[in-house]
Prior knowledge:
DNA binding, Putative DNA-binding protein with PD1-like DNA-binding motif, 2 helices, CATH 3.30.1330.80, DNA-binding, ten-stranded mixed β-sheet, about 50% strand, PPC_dom
Amino acid sequence: MRHILHPGAVAPERMTAVAAAPVPLRFTLEPGEAVDAAIAKGFAASGCIGGIVAFQGGRFETFRFVMPAASPDALHAAWYSDTFAPAGPVEIRRGCAIVGERDGKPFIHCHGVWASSEGVQMGHMLAPDTVVAEPIEVTGIGVRTATFRALPDPETNFTLFEPVQVGEPVQVDGSHRVLLTKVRPNEDISLALEQICSRHGITKARVHGIGSLNGVRFADGSRVESHATEVLIREGEVELSHDRLRGPLHVDVVDPDGRIFSGDLVHGDNPVCVTFELMIEGVA
């Protein structure tokens, strides 16, 4: 597998997962509010401090985003583009926001696909600078005893979301719990997903999340060569097949040139570039 060298010492623990009881969420983002503030209100109303939100449609104006880029120096293995600011309204096709906290305040990390005056685009939404233009109903999964906390990551030299326990852990059955999960660089995302579920006794799950991969290999033979990518899990699951866990993932990917790719990932040949954040939702 491809291997990327980051500036810091390699962390010994390559995957982190924290279990919690899921709280199904459905709420409305109100016009005129920044996306992160609107999502924070919905979570607070349900007493939740971490989780995910899924976007399926919705209109925003103004809208700001970045795409992956090569690092301009040796301080990081990859970086971000300049900020893009499409003119006029932007329609979300699909997206996922990981919800957590940074510096003690609500914070989200969001990747998505959208249509603007410049065509169909994909990238990393800058939520504080993106404004809701109409009431948008969103769905999600919240948790009350854990969250994703933005912390300095010495290996990559980024500040990244890390799953953390907050308060007393709740004992819940494997088919009725979620795992807040982080996968570190150079781990194949499908193998990591299967290993995490095996450790936690989960044999069937839906998988939600976003991250970056060091090049992408699809099951149909197509590929993305750039080491700097942004990835959105479009459909993901874990299931027991022939006495072993399998975690097929269908993803959207954008490269530094703004090209969008979609497809099923090859099993065992898609290493994480910087980080991958997952919500693993156990199902009966």
